[in-house]
Amino acid sequence: MRTPTPRAMPAIVLDTPPRASAPLGPAPAPLMGPVMVRCGTTECELRVGSLLIGRGTECDLVLEDPLVSRLHARIQVEAEGVKVEDLYSTNGVYLNGERVMQARLLHQGDHLFIGNHDVTFVEIRTDPAPATSVPPSSFPYHREPATRPNITVGAPDIPITARADALDLLGNLARRLANDVKAEQAPRMLGPHLQGILRGASAGLVVPAALCEIASEYAVDLAHWTTDPSWLNYVVELHLVTKRLMSATTVTALQRSERWVGAIDRRRLEYYVNSFAQGQSTLAKDERARLATLRRLLKKK
What topology is assigned to 35-123 in CATH? Predict the structure, then answer.
C-alpha cells in the first residue's frame, strides 16, 4: 500500500532563541527640524531645505556602497516635520524595516536603511522663538540651504547588525501573514530583501553570520509557503558566495525541506560541498559532520 505524499507542512521554526518584541507605549513624536543626520561615525546638520543622499558626488551625503544608487534618497525639512523620500532607487529605502513607497514623516528613534548603512536622526534643540504670525509661503524651512560641503561615507567592512534586525522584523510579519492564509504576500515582502542581501554578497560586501542565518531561515520558510525549491537553492547560493559553512540548523532544515518542497539543485550543492574539500582537514569534528550530511543529501535521488 502506497503512503500518500504529504501536501503541506507548517513553516519551519528554526532552533533560535526567542526574540523579545518591542514594548508597547505611546507613539513616538514626529521629528521637527533642525536635525542632526548620523551615519556611522559621520554627522551632518540639516537646518533648512533638503539633504541629498546617494553614491553620486553631487549628493550632500555620499555613500560609497554598490547597493546605493547615484541619487538614492532625500531628507527634507518642512513646516510639518522632517520627511524622507526614495528617489526611485534600485534597492529601495527602508524605514524601520518597511520599504518607503512615498514621502514619509520621520519620528524620534527612527532608523533609515540605505544600502548597508543605518541612518539615524537627532533633533537639535533650539530656544523657542517668540510667537509670530508667519505666512506658510515664507516659512524658513522651505528655503534651500547655503552651500554645504559633501560628506563621504565609505562602505562599512561589516554591514550593520540592525540590517539583520530589519530582516527579522519583515520575516516575523511575513509569518503572521502566512498563518492568516495570506502566504502569497510573503514573497513580495521578503523576496526583494533576501535577493538584495545575495546581490550585496556577490558584490563583495561582508555578510555577518547572524544575517546569513536569518536570511537562510526565512528563505526556507518561503520555500514552504510557496512550494518553490528555488528558495532552497538560494540558501546554498548565499553560503557559496559568502564562503561560509552552513550551520547545523540550516543543514537540517534543507534536509527536511526537500521532502516537502522539492529537490535542491544537485550541481549547485555539489559545487558548494566540494569548495570545502581541500580544507576539510582543518575543520572541526562537528563541521565535518555537517559536510557529511550534505554529501548524503547529494546522493538522494
Answer: Tumour Suppressor Smad4 (2.60.200)
What are the grid coordinates assigned to 172, written together? 516575523
Contact present, 154 and 64 (Cβ < 8 Å): yes
Q: What is the DSSP letter of 30?
A: B
pLDDT exceeds 50 at position 148? no
Give me the residue spans of the domains in the chain.
35-123, 160-298
Q: What are phi and psi of 86, to 5 degrees?
A: -85, 125
Q: What is the pTM of this model?
A: 0.47
Phi-psi region of 291 (alpha: psi -120 to 50; beta: other; left: phi over 0): alpha
Task: Quote the cell numbers at residue 46.
Answer: 540639516
Residue with cell 574539500: 277
pLDDT digits (tens, 9 = 90+) for 95-126: 888 888 888 999 888 889 898 888 998 888 76
Where does residue 147 rank: exposed (0-12), middle (13-18), buried (19+ CB within 10 A)?
exposed
Distance in angstroms (rounded) separating the CA atoms of residues 41 and 55 = 18
Residue 97 CB partners (closer than 8 Å, separation 6+):
113, 165, 166, 167, 169, 170
Q: Which residues pair with residue 77 across a beta bridge?
A: 82
Exposure string over 255-281, b if 16+ CB within 10 A, otherwise e? eebeebbeebeeeebeebbeebeeeee
Return the sign of the alpha-carbon dihedral for residues 157, 197, 31, 104: positive
Position 199 scores a pLDDT of 80
Name the phi and psi angles at 128, rounded to 5: -65, 135
Q: Is 255 helix (H, G, I), strand (E, B) or coil?
A: helix
Bridge pairing between strands 50-54 and 93-95 = unpaired
Pairing label, strands 117-123, 111-114: antiparallel
**Residues found in the chain:** 301
pLDDT in tens, 64-104: 888 888 889 999 888 888 999 988 887 888 888 888 888 89
Q: In sequence order, what DSSP letters do the residues of 197-208 get, joined into one string?
A: HHHHHHTT----
